[in-house]
Amino acid sequence: MTARTQRTRLLAVGAVAASLTLGLTACGSSGSSSGSSTGANASATVPAVSADPSLAALVPADVKSAGKIVAATDASYAPNEFKDDKGNIVGMDVDLATAIATKLGLTVDVQNATFDSIIPGITGKKYTLSMSSFTDTKEREATVDMVTYFNAGTGAAVKKGNPDKIDPKDLCGKKVAVQTGTTQADSIKDTINPACVKAGKPPVPNDGDKFDLQTDVTQALVSGRDQVMLADSPVVDYAIKQTNGQLEKVGDVTDTAPYGVVLAKNSDLTKAVQGAVQSLMADGTYKSILEKWGVQAGAIDKPVVNGATS
Questions:
Q1: What DSSP character marks residue 148?
Q2: Angle, helices 92-103/285-292, rounded to nearest 10 degrees
Q3: Cα–Cα distance, 305 to 274 (Å, whole number)
Q4: Cα gap 20→24, rounded to integer Å
Q5: What is residue 64's DSSP assignment?
Q6: What is the pLDDT of residues 188-218, one digit of tens each?
Q7: Does residue 226 contact residue 178 with C-beta atoms inside 8 Å?
């Protein structure tokens, strides 16, 4: 469940936050499709991927002539997409995008972008597709195609020991850190705060403390600026591991829904990408990539085009 907008950097979070930033951005492989990350399964082996001529035949002429897929991602969302200590963009989505491109007889050019700029970049033909932890929703399907490939829900994290006694079922009046434009941010504005007001309780201030980068969201919680953070479940799990016991999960994962590969609406490439994902599932590559990044709990069996239920 994901999306983002205006960058709001956390200006002063002290030495703890500085070390956290290093932990979040320096754990990964030296390339986009090899290596491992702290908290991931370093022993997982990802099999070599070969082009599938029948799938390559589905690739539209303009993409085929370019020879590559330009894939946009917001590299601040470990372990799904982030930068390693050498500045390379790595993660589950990067490995999957690379494998999809290879199946289609193409290469991939992964480009970092702010989350809220990605869908306009797809519709404006700046990018071929995006894999950046986008939840497949009916609202998004109105402007783009989405090919499902993973399931995630919303998780909540607090400081170790939950000193503020946070109950994620009642966040009224609490300082909640979220990434701008995410479904978590939308849920505060559209669901949580209206319910708080109706119950006569104070709403979450400012519809949440919003940051453009997930690393800043985590820093805001670690520094004590905020009391709880909401993010996609694999991202929460990864952040807890990276903070070496400073954070803990609270409550259950909620609102589970699929991620989707984002493509232009009615793109001739959509069916090819769906076929590539299905092929990667069938030959074991998909499972191996998820295991590499420690997110196999979100695996699905079948990719669907525009399969949002809400």
A1: E
A2: 160
A3: 7
A4: 6
A5: H
A6: 999 999 999 999 999 999 999 999 888 899 9
A7: no
65 CB-near residues (< 8 Å, 6+ apart): none
Query: Which pTM was predicted?
Result: 0.75
- Which residues have CB under 8 Å from 90's CB, separation 6+? 28, 29, 31, 32, 35, 37, 81, 82, 83, 84
Task: Report the candidate in 3, 23, 152, 8 with the shortest Cα–Cα distance to residue 85.
Answer: 23
- The residue count for the chain: 310
Contact between 279 and 103 under an 8 Å Cβ cutoff? The reply is yes
Please give the Cα distance from 127 to 117 (Å, whole number). 11
- Residue 215's H or E segment, with its range, is helix 214-222
Structure-token pair, residue 53: 């001529």
Residues 43-55: what's their mean pLDDT? 85
Q: How confident is the model over 156-190, as pLDDT tens digits?
A: 999 999 999 999 999 999 999 999 888 899 999 99
Here the tokens at position 54 are 């029948």
- Residue 47 DSSP symbol: P
Secondary structure element (H or E) that encloses residue 81, with its range: strand 81-83
Calculate the average pLDDT of the chain. Answer: 86
For residues 219 and 76, the answer to whether their CB atoms sit within 8 Å is no
Q: 223 and 159 in contact (C-beta within 8 Å)? A: no
Give the separation between CA 70 and CA 128, rounded to whole angstroms. Answer: 5
Token pair for 79 = 């372990």
Element holding 278 (H helix, E strand): helix 270-282
